[in-house]
């Protein structure tokens, strides 16, 4: 009886979260999957069933493959750099004064809770070709000036730099939490055996941070594949589609060209790609993870 009461209480407490998950995640995914088999411009009351035509069109669409390649390149630029910077700063903060730790955490985490639109506007000013901070810093070095967001050769890199700055703080917080969960006796024993600081980082801390590294690798990959706001605010996918990522392309077809069926096919395909990458990361990286 008590077990039943505990189960009922648990389900009641979970109900609000499960309802929200169903309404805003599960049902939209199912609806989008169903809509991908139809042609609908949102103006006609009844969608037209077209079967696999949207997927056939997608698989033969050269523009989609170029966008996928661009998105993969963007993720390769941002994910490793964000995690590496996060690890470096976390290692530095782990040895800092405990009294200042909360303040440091707040500073690093601030970009994650700040409006992406506001951040994008600030970085547009930083990248301004005539009055921007970036060119002002490089000018005394004899470098530039660059048309950061207005040149197809630098626009994607410019967005990647901003995303690295924005995401690395999140990695700092998670890595710092992982470092502080390591048993201090392990480090003490290593020092007694003659290990220096680099040996401890290389052979103890980094391996023990494996679970956190795997988690961040998966989360960061998902986040970068879903990049939309900064592109929409800063470049709108230009110039010459050089910053049009998958979600931006999806938005373009759905809400500018009103091809909801084809946009849904893109959404489901992106979901499958992210799921495949996640499973691949768990299979390849997960086997190298050491748990305490």
TrEMBL record:
PROSITE patterns, A to Z: ABC_TM1
Pfam families assigned to the protein according to its UniProt record, in alphabetical order: BPD_transp_1 (PF00528)
InterPro entries, per the entry: ABC_transporter_permease, MetI-like, MetI-like_sf
SUPFAM superfamilies (alphabetical): MetI-like (SSF161098)
GO biological process, one term: transmembrane transport
Residue ranges crossing the lipid bilayer per the database entry: 12-38, 72-93, 102-126, 156-179, 200-222, 260-280
Protein location: Cell membrane
Family: Belongs to the binding-protein-dependent transport system permease family.
PANTHER family xref list: ABC TRANSPORTER PERMEASE PROTEIN, INNER MEMBRANE ABC TRANSPORTER PERMEASE PROTEIN YCJO
Protein name in UniProt: Sugar ABC transporter permease
Organism this protein belongs to: Paenibacillus cremeus
